Amino acid sequence: MTTIELTDSNFDRVIQDNDIVLVDFWARWCGPCRQFAPVFEQSAKDNPEVVHGKLDTEAAQRTAAAAAITAIPTLMAFRQGVLVFSQAGALPAPALAQVVDAVKKIDMREVHEHIAAHDNDPAREN
Known about the structure:
By secondary structure, the protein is an alpha/beta fold.
């Protein structure tokens, strides 16, 4: 599978409609982004069950701002619509493979239970 282009209009739907989504926040003028691109493309080919999306921060400024992107490239991983990993900087291929493997192994039942407990905590300030 190749990467897909994420935009302000499709970002939320792609995140919610897929089990695992890796997002590469990038820009055309960014040298490290261009260096990371082939690593990300190879990961997409190696992991066809994982959606690999690229979001151009210049073209999708609303989504980049909502995601609080302050440095590029930034890699985010979502599992069942939940952000489970975020890191700025270009990763080498072995590190990206470790991230993908770790995200695949997350027990999402535990994550959802933790989120529910946090949301229902009466001591939590709103």
